[in-house]
């Protein structure tokens, strides 16, 4: 991120974007980027889950695979539930977009939820990988770090909460 300033810039009429009024054009680009993040978070969570399932299925402790322990199964089950919900949300938003009926606050719901849940999944997967969870041999920590940055760009969680809040209440809390 860097600062970029234009002072006293004038554009001829033929250099302007057609039909762009005020901030509507740049904000529509933001919504497109946020929409992509909804799906990217699902992909990161999926890779974490698949990596972890493979690991706990092959890693043996006391002559038993890690996947055979109750706590491992409970963690995997909880993550699978959240992952499934994130997939369904992304699918629903994709269908709304295909129909031309998606609204910015719906995209905010998708980004806010899916990034939050993907981070939780990555962190939980890291715990199941034990010490291997912090090595570069497995992609889990890389996904967790990337998701931490995704949480911030294209609008922080708080910005998306305000977008959703305004849609629900009809009152803007942006100041």
Explain briefly what this protein structure is:
The protein is built from five helices and two strands. The chain has a single domain (27-169), classed as Butyryl-CoA Dehydrogenase, subunit A, domain 3.
Chain-wise SSE layout:
Elements: H1 24-58, E1 60-61, E2 64-65, H2 70-98, H3 104-128, H4 140-152, H5 157-169
Antiparallel strand pairs: 1-2
Give short descriptive properties of this protein.
175 residues, Butyryl-CoA Dehydrogenase, subunit A, domain 3, elongated
The helix-and-strand class reads: mainly alpha
The level 1 CATH classification is Mainly Alpha
Task: Determine the strand fraction and express it as a percent band.
Answer: under 5%
Radius of gyration, taken over Cα atoms and rounded to an integer in Å:
21 Å
Low-confidence stretches: none
CATH-level-2 architecture: Up-down Bundle
Count every beta strand, where a strand is a DSSP E run of 2 or more residues. Answer: 2
> In which order are the strands of the major sheet placed?
1-2
Account of the protein in words:
This protein has 175 residues and is mainly α. Strand 1 and strand 2 form a beta hairpin. It has 5 helices and 2 strands, in the order H-E-E-H-H-H-H. Helix 1 runs antiparallel to helix 2, helix 1 packs parallel to helix 3 and helix 2 packs antiparallel against helix 3. The protein has a single domain, classed as Butyryl-CoA Dehydrogenase, subunit A, domain 3 (Up-down Bundle).
